[in-house]
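In this supplementary section we document a worked example of the pipeline. Step one takes a protein sequence of length 180 as its only input; no multiple sequence alignment statistics are reported here. Step two produces a three-dimensional model, which step three serialises into C-alpha cells for compact storage. The input and output of this example are shown verbatim.
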Amino acid sequence: KKSIKANVFVCLYKINKMDIGLKVQDIVLLGLFNPAKFDRYTFIKNKILKEEEIEQSSIFLPEIVNLQSKKFNLVINSNQIIISTNPENNVDISKFLLKFLSLFDEINLNASGFNFRYFVEPKIDNSEIESFIKKNFFNPNNKIQSQFFSDDNSTYGVYSSKDFKGTRLKLDVKPVNENV
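The serialised model returned by step three reads:
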C-alpha cells in the first residue's frame, strides 16, 4: 500500500508541474454526404461565413471539401463531416454547426461524436518527463514493448475504450514532441 500511495503522490506532484489544456475540439458526423454541394460561395451566400473568413488554403473539390478559417476547419467527404476548432483560436463551434446543418433539407446521419484533444505540457525538464512517461506507460513484461521499444528514443502512451451510457468512450494518450 505504501508504494501505491507514494506512486500516486509522485503522479499528482508531476501533474501539478504541467499545464493541461484543451487545444482542439471536433464534432464528427457520420453518414452519407455530397461534398460537391458545398463550394466556397455556398457558405458566403447562406451567411455562414464571410468571404474574408475563408482561408485561401481551403479546398473545394467534388469528392472532398477542406474549408479552413482562423476559427475552425471543416472537412466533408462522402462518409463524414468533421468540424474542428483551430488550436490558436479555440472558439465555440456549435453555432457554426447549427448554421451549417440548416443547409440540409434532409440529413442521412448514422452516428455522431465529439473528440476533445488535451495537451499536457511539462513545466519541468524534458528528461524528467521522459522518465515519468516511461515509468508509467512502459511495461517491461510486455514482450513487444521490451523487445522492440525499450531503447531511449521510444515513447509510450495508452489506449482505453469502453461502452458508456449508450456510446463508446475512448481515451487515447499519445506523446507528442514539438520542435520549437
